Amino acid sequence: MSLTKTNATAATLTKNRTEGSVVPASGMCVTCIDGCIGMCEIGKSAYRGHEVIYPQPFGVITAACEKNYPIDYSHFNILSGVVGAKGIDEDSDKAIFPNVNLEVKFGHDNGIKFKLPIMIPGIGSTNIAKNNWEGLAIGTALAGTGLTIGENVVGMDTEAVIKNGKVVDTVDLKKRVKLFTDNQVDGYGAIIVQANVEDTRLGVQEYALKELGVKCVELKWGQGAKNIGGEVKIKDLKKAQLLYDRGYVVLPNPTDPHVIKAFENGAFSEFERHSRVGMVTEEGFAQRVEELRKAGAKYIFLKTGAYGPADLARAIKFASKYKMDLLTVDGAGGGTGMSPWRMMNEWGVPPVELHSLTYNYAKQLKDKGQHVPAIAFAGGFTFEDQMFKGLALGAPYVKLIGMARAPIAAAMVGKTIGNAVKNHQIPVYVERFGASIDQIFVTANELRNKVGNEAFEKIPTGAIGLYTYYERLAQGLRQLMAGTRKFDLSYISRDDLASLTKEASEVSGIPYIMDYQKEEAQKILNS
Question: Of 387, 409, 431, at which residue does a domain stop?
Answer without folding.
Answer: 409
